[in-house]
Amino acid sequence: MAQEDSAGGMTGYIKHHLTHLTVNQGHGVFWSIHLDSVIFKALISLFFVTLFVMVARRATSGVPGKLQAAVEIIVEFVDGMVKDTFHGSSKFIAPLAITTFCIVFLENFMDMLPVDALPAAGKLFGAEHLRVVATADINTTVGMALGVFLLLWYIGIKSKGVMLFFKEWFTAPFHAHGIWAVLLAPINLLLRLIEEGVRPLSLSLRLFGNMYAGELIFLLIACFTLDAALNHVSTYILGGAQFVAGFIWTAFHILIITLQAFIFMTLTIVYASMAAERH
Asked: Which H or E run includes 41?
């Protein structure tokens, strides 16, 4: 049941939970930093690195333990996808894909926690607002997408060289010779600029939209028993409906968070392959 102070009713409850712990707010929206997203992003990244390093150091050639077996399944699955999709020779594509999938999945999985649990704990440390799902923050997803975007440029330049990389901006997708090459160059450049802009936009907005919607639905389910009177029969009817709705949405949302991590990883591999291929 929702335990948040509901002075503003359902609208106030949802608005409170969708408000970030922000610093530099007085310097304008652009310069504001969502401290909760930064903290949870850093903690999850540290957890991922620590876990995989620990498993790698303790790995045995015999019968693996459960944790080692789970990590090996993830590594082999992602490595197989990279070999089937990426046709270049870069050695960090598989580690990049594994890191992308695991961190996005772990960030998404934070949405499985009860909506009031960590925000209530944050109040004990003076945090009035606390959002724990970093991927439900557009700043996080845009930052991740821009990071991938810069890596794609690095892969493209490393595979083709600076001259050929930027030459393709004017010569693909419409290949021509002579005067036609000059006439089609602005069109090719325009299409390339649109393509370069769409990639980070699609990566960031798809992940953000799905996770934000999932978080909002959990909050709406929590509102079933907001301001509930314990001596009223409707409270127990709504409580039962809340439990059933929460269970169904949690089971469905597990598929969503896994799928979104998989899509983000897959598109990263596909874009890397496109960046490395010569037109």
From this structure: helix 35-58
Q: How far apart are CA 5 and CA 30, in angstroms?
A: 29
The β-bridge partners of 23 are: 33
- Is residue 108 among the annotated active site residues? no
Contacts with 163 (C-beta within 8 Å, 6 or more apart), sequence order: none
Catalytic: which of 159, 202, 204, 278? 202
Per-residue pLDDT tens listing for the chain (279 residues): 454 444 467 888 889 888 888 887 655 666 788 999 999 999 999 999 999 999 999 888 888 889 999 999 999 999 888 988 887 777 888 999 999 999 999 999 999 988 888 888 888 888 888 999 999 999 999 999 999 999 989 998 988 889 999 999 998 888 878 888 888 899 999 999 999 999 999 999 999 999 999 999 999 998 887 766 555 667 778 888 888 999 999 999 999 999 999 999 999 999 998 888 876
Q: Are 116 and 218 a contacting pair, CB within 8 Å?
A: no
Check: CB of residue 85 under 8 Å from CB of residue 277: no
Q: Looking at 108, 188, 210, 273, which residue is catalytic?
A: 210
Task: From the candidates 192, 206, 231, 234, give the one annotated as an active-site residue.
Answer: 206
Going from N- to C-terminal start, the domains of the chain cover 9-276
Count of beta carbons in the 10 Å neighbourhood of residue 177: 8
Intra-chain end-to-end CA distance of the chain, in Å: 57
Q: Please indicate whether residue 202 is annotated as part of the active site.
A: yes
Known catalytic residue at 206: yes
